[in-house]
Each structure stands twice: as structure tokens, then as C-alpha cells.
């Protein structure tokens, strides 16, 4: 069983590289868009590209992603910046734009791309089972 599992993981490494590249491209596009659209309103989460990538990782893992969305929907002076009011210099919410941005990112990142990883591993498992049965 362990040999089957290791073979499946080894067989799926090349395909996982392609899925990782696709996920990295998605992260980069959304991070640039997030810095462009939300950088002035939310400098804590979208102040620069590195912070935006980290914030998007938080969003794709569904770790309290609605707080980031609400800050950008209602503006930093109205939501989420209670302890960091000095950083909220340009509060301008975008309810429709931020809802579309974050919901589409969650749908693409979590529901589609991350499930591709599972599909690649399952395909590798099937190939490993077939090769093991052919060897016997």
C-alpha cells in the first residue's frame, strides 16, 4: 500500500507542477489587481505585491477571508481598522467590485484549482494501480 501511494505521488509530480504554475499565475493576476484596486483603501492587506500575495493565500485557504472582503466593501474607516486607524488614509469602499473580486477568487482558487490537485493525485493513483497490476 505504501509503495502504491509513493508511486502515485511520484507519477503526479509533473502534472502537479503545471497545476502549481496555473495557481501561481492566478495568484499573481489577482494580487496585481488587488494592489491596483484596493491598495489605497486597504494598505494592510494590499499595500504592496508581497502583502497582497499573502492576503490572497489567506483568502484561498478560507481563513477569515470575509473580513478582507468587508474592509474593501465598506471602506477601511467603516470596518476592520479599529486598531490601525492611522493607516486608513483613503477610505473608499467598493461593494460590487470587491464582492466580485473576492468571490471569483475563492471560486477559481479554492473550488477549481485546488481541486485540480486532488484530481491529479487520483489520476496518479489509478496509473500506479494499473502498473502494479500489470507487474503482477
Task: Write a structural description.
There is one protein chain. With 136 residues, the protein is an all-alpha fold. Helix content is 76%, strand content 0%. The chain contains 5 helices and no strands. The chain has helices at residues 2-38, 43-46, 49-60, 65-74, 95-135. The longest helix has 41 residues, at 95-135. It is elongated. The two termini are 14 Å apart. The model has no long low-confidence stretch (mean pLDDT 88).
The first-to-last residue Cα distance is 14 Å
Tell me, what's the shape? elongated
Task: Output the radius of gyration.
Answer: 20 Å
Biggest β-sheet strands, sense, barrel: none
Query: Which range best describes the helical content: under 10%, 10-25%, 25-40%, 40-55%, 55-70% or over 70%?
Result: over 70%
Sequence stretches where pLDDT stays below 50 over 5 or more residues: none
List SSEs in N-to-C order: HHHHH
Query: How many strand segments?
Result: 0
At a glance:
By secondary structure, the chain is mostly helical. Helices cover 76% and strands 0% of the residues.
Compile the SSE list and pairings.
Blueprint: H1 2-38, H2 43-46, H3 49-60, H4 65-74, H5 95-135
Helix pairs in contact: 1-3, 1-5, 4-5
What keyword list fits this structure?
136 residues; mainly alpha; 0% strand; elongated
Amino acid at each position: 500500500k505504501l509503495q502504491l501511494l509513493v508511486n502515485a505521488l511520484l507519477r503526479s509530480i509533473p502534472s502537479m507542477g503545471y497545476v502549481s504554475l496555473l495557481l501561481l499565475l492566478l495568484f499573481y493576476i489577482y494580487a496585481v489587481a488587488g494592489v491596483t484596486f484596493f491598495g489605497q483603501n486597504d494598505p494592510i492587506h494590499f499595500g504592496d505585491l508581497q502583502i497582497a500575495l499573502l492576503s490572497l493565500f489567506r483568502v484561498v485557504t478560507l481563513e477569515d477571508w470575509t473580513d478582507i472582503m468587508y474592509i474593501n466593501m465598506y471602506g477601511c474607516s467603516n470596518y476592520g481598522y479599529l486598531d490601525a486607524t492611522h493607516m486608513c488614509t483613503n477610505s473608499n469602499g467598493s461593494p460590487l467590485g470587491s464582492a466580485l473580486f473576492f468571490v471569483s477568487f475563492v471560486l477559481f482558487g479554492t473550488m477549481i484549482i485546488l481541486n485540480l490537485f486532488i484530481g491529479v493525485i487520483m489520476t496518479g493513483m489509478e496509473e500506479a494501480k494499473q502498473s502494479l497490476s500489470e507487474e503482477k
